[in-house]
Amino acid sequence: MSFEPGKLVNVQVLTTANNNYTPSSGVRVSFVRMVGAGGAGGGTQGNTTDYSVGGGGGAGAYTEAIIFPVAGTAYAATIGAIGNGVSDNTGNTGGATTLAAPITLGGSNSTITAPGGIGGSSQNNSGTFTGIVAGGAATAAGANGKVNTPGGAGGFGWRSNQTAGWSGTGASGPWGVGGSGLASIGNANGTNATGYGSGGSGSAGGVNATAYTGGFGTAGLIVIQEFS
């Protein structure tokens, strides 16, 4: 089979946790786009006498790279695992997405990375506390890409004295939407993110509520466009 130079040959999408990228026949250069997993929203306390809210989870970083794969070689890839939501604690950070491949023609492998989003905070104050419950901080930029973009920060929650508040919205990314924030009177787990690489919202609980779980982030993703 012959290939026209510079022609798009195939597109591979990697979604499983630990995978290999094996270039298609005739590929000389590939354009890689990846995103880290989203962080979870913060979980609320149980057994309190006051409203409790969590901050939103951060989005995973986004990275673009050019690689020069060798035919028949399998390149190790890791897809960032989702940030799991928990109750009464800070949400878990999403996993990093990585690919080890040559970023120069004839070069050795470099690890291209897109870090995962940071989990949102949990409010552990009671009584007359009024103020902000922090979302997950902006995610650090990745490495070894032509474009290395940080992930967005999760939205903050707000508690107004003992009577009201809302949870933080999860950060959206290029391939997903963050979970929507909640009013604290709703007594609910946080909203899960959708797509890839976005953060979950914080949970919200009213007076005498049980503990509620922050919304889950979504997994990372790698998309590889292959050219002859």
Walkthrough of the structure:
By secondary structure, the chain is mostly beta strands. The protein is 0% helix and 30% strand. The strands form five sheets. The chain has a five-stranded antiparallel beta sheet with strand order 1-16-3-5-10, with no helix packed on it. Strands 2-6-7-8 form a four-stranded antiparallel beta sheet, with no helix packed on it. A hairpin with a 6-residue loop joins β7 and β8. The protein is elongated, with a radius of gyration of 20 Å. The mean pLDDT is 91.
Name a few traits of the molecule:
mainly beta; 228 residues
Secondary structure elements and pairings:
Layout: E1 8-14, E2 18-21, E3 29-35, E4 52-53, E5 62-67, E6 75-78, E7 97-102, E8 109-114, E9 131-133, E10 147-149, E11 157-160, E12 164-166, E13 176-177, E14 194-195, E15 204-205, E16 221-227
Antiparallel strand pairs: 1-16, 2-6, 3-5, 3-16, 4-15, 5-10, 6-7, 7-8, 9-11, 11-12, 13-14
Radius of gyration: 20 Å
Q: What would you call the shape?
A: elongated
Which whole number gives the mean pLDDT?
A: 91
Low-confidence regions: none
Q: Which structural class should the secondary elements be placed in? A: mainly beta
Short description:
The protein has strands at 8-14, 18-21, 29-35, 52-53, 62-67, 75-78, 97-102, 109-114, 131-133, 147-149, 157-160, 164-166, 176-177, 194-195, 204-205, 221-227.
